[in-house]
Write a structure and sequence with these properties.
mainly alpha; two-stranded antiparallel ribbon; extended
Length: 214
């Protein structure tokens, strides 16, 4: 087991003339593989990139499977509620959905979690799939009890299709978010700067990105 600190991967050594020091440009090790990953790993840079690519593909495969199971469970739960299922009937399936959703969230949104602990992240995503499928089995019983044993959750192949199926008002939500970004956010930054809590200079050269647009 190698005794690595965060700085070994995220702040690699650089040289300027005869001076060697840790870079203070903290970032992904994959941005500078030669001076980070390959100081320990013995593959070529291209070989190492392919290894990482294959590992991420495996993680994404499990993440998609978990998302599909949980999404179908959500649709089936909605149908059961529509047919008059009681809170008592739904409780076991809803608990599975919640447990599965938290595991999916952790596996997908934990940023460097997979890079730092790949086996654990794969285990968590696998249990998310199990929880999603367990919820669906329980919901199948509830649906049958309410005369909908043959109900099939609608299929979808993209986030946009899923949003349309549930009637998510994306245009309205984006408009509300942009109103916040264009109005309240600048006000908060101004107040923070006045209190000495925010320095605009620290953000120079940084792009503010969102997953949505006007």
């Amino acid at each position: 087991m190698r005794t690595l600190a965060c700085a070994d991967c995220h702040m690699p050594y650089v040289r300027e003339g005869g001076v060697k020091y840790s870079s203070h440009k903290v970032g992904s090790p994959l941005e500078d593989i030669q001076n980070t990953c390959l100081t320990c790993h013995r593959e070529s840079e291209e070989e190492f990139k392919q290894i990482v690519k294959r590992k991420l593909e495996r993680k994404n495969e499990l993440a998609r499977a978990a998302a599909a199971a949980l999404a179908k469970a959500h649709f089936e739960a909605a149908k059961a509620w529509e047919l008059g299922a009681t809170a008592e009937e739904m409780a076991p399936a809803l608990l599975d959905i919640r447990h599965g959703q938290w595991r999916w969230d952790f596996g997908v949104a934990s940023h460097g979690g997979f890079f730092h602990a790949p086996e654990e992240t794969l285990r968590i995503l696998a249990t998310a799939i199990h929880k999603g499928q367990s919820a669906r089995i329980k919901l199948r019983t509830v649906l049958a009890r309410h005369g909908a044993a043959d109900y099939e959750a609608p299929g979808f192949s993209s986030k946009e299709e899923a949003q349309a199926l549930i009637g998510l008002p994306m245009d309205k939500l984006v408009a509300e978010k942009m109103q916040f970004l264009d109005n309240l956010r600048p006000q908060w930054l101004k107040e923070a700067a006045a209190k000495g809590l925010y320095d605009e200079k620290t953000r120079q050269g940084m792009a503010f990105k969102t997953s949505y647009s006007k």
